[in-house]
Amino acid sequence: MDKLTIISGCLFLAADIFAIASVANPDWINTGAQEGALTIGLVKQCLTIYGRKRVCISPSLPPEWITALFFIIMGIISLSITCGLLVISHWRREAMKYARWIAFTGMVLFCMAALTFPVGFHIDQVGGQPYKLPNNTVVGSSYVLFVLSIFFTIVGLLFACKVCLPG
Asked: 92 by DSSP, 3-state: which?
């Protein structure tokens, strides 16, 4: 196994971990309401009222966010399979070809989720329009982790395809 394969494997693993963490954390959207802070995630929604203990529930998601969640979960599965294939490529070199294509599929799935998620900004808890958040609402750390997972997947693909090699 060469250095670039190891680097790409580490990048895919980091992207996988970031994507899992972004789904698990309910901090995709933060509303800065004065009476309470609401954090909305893809699997949990949490409300803190006047500094009291944080209360979390499972939200009813709009179809756009269910679709984005599906794309993210499929992307996580793709990256997990890619990491396994990269390990197998140490013994069977042809596994690398499949790993590249599955990682590419994961990147496409993540990008589809990134395009689909903002369409759901119209829900009552957010109060925005598709692709436009209201002024008192910001994206949270989970969304940043998700964007980082897309970035690491793309860079991992560059290393896996050896595009970064000179000449």
From this structure: coil
The reported pTM is 0.90
CB count, 10 Å around CB of 7?
A: 16
Work out the angle between the directed axes of helices 63-88 and 141-160 (0-180°, nearest 10).
40
Residue 34 binned pLDDT confidence (cut-offs 50, 70, 90): low
Q: Could you give the count of Cα atoms lying within 13 Å of 47 in the half-sphere of its Cβ?
A: 9
Q: Which domain holds residue 72?
A: 3-26+61-127+142-160
Q: Which residue has the tokens 């994961």?
A: 106
Q: Token pair for residue 47? A: 């409300």
Residue 38 located in a structural domain: no
pLDDT tops 60 at residue 166: no
Q: Give the whole-angstrom CA distance, residue 158 versus residue 97.
A: 13
